[in-house]
Amino acid sequence: MSQRWAIAAFFVESFLLFSLGVGVAKYLGSTVIGEQIGIGYLWVFCLQLGGVFLWRHATGTMKVKDNGRLRVSPYSTDFILAIAAFASSASLTVLMIAGRLYTLGMLGVTLLAILGTLIGAKTLRIAETDRFREIILSFVVAVLIPWFAFLLQTGELHRFLPLVTLPLWALRMAMVLSYQLSTYASDLNAKNQTLMLRIGWQNGMALHNALILFAFFLIALGNVIGIPLSIGLPPLAALILGLGQIWNMRRIAQGVKPNWRGLIWGGVALYGLVIYLYAYSFWIR
Prior knowledge:
By secondary structure, the chain is mostly helical. Helices cover 80% and strands 0% of the residues. The chain contains 12 helices and no strands. The two termini are 36 Å apart.
């Protein structure tokens, strides 16, 4: 997948997850306000856009340093565009505060989202956080975006949120690992320190399979401890696709010629399908 398509998919993903958060609020009886949806998603979009530009800036700077030639300005076009995107987010934050949409929960979620975005963009390095960059970024996207959307409509968190979003976090991590396995050789040659490279391909493949099983265990657990079966059963249907991903990964581990396209798009389909089934189930009820 090209970088351009990956970035486009990143924004589509955030839109679906934001819709999921609003859907949960609607299901629980909150009145969905279109203006708050617009401001909220625009805030998320600007934050992600700033993160993408910062990542492009940081990646370009690191490549120049590796080649031993300093040709990229610290104030590159990407850096300036990132500042502009973050300034837009700040302006939208002022609007949300003026509209009395900000609560303590909102403050916590937005601060975590900003911190995670900066770490994911390779801009902020605190202690060993860079080693967990993919995990942190997946948490920001799969967990914090739905929480943010929900809080904009309700002002407070609900126990449904972790029950729904934690499985998505696990499935997103599995998707990331399946992609990083396909680029393992090139990442090794380029010394691109991905999560798969840091933990080793054997551990990464085992973790991929464990994450899928863990995600569906959490979905089933949610059905037991509070989420109605009409909401929680449809995502369980995606277990068939999840088992297919595990089977494909095990075949690769056994030395069978990899079907990289099938593995990558299978991970995307699994993650996207569970998001869709949850969002659809909440919205229609």
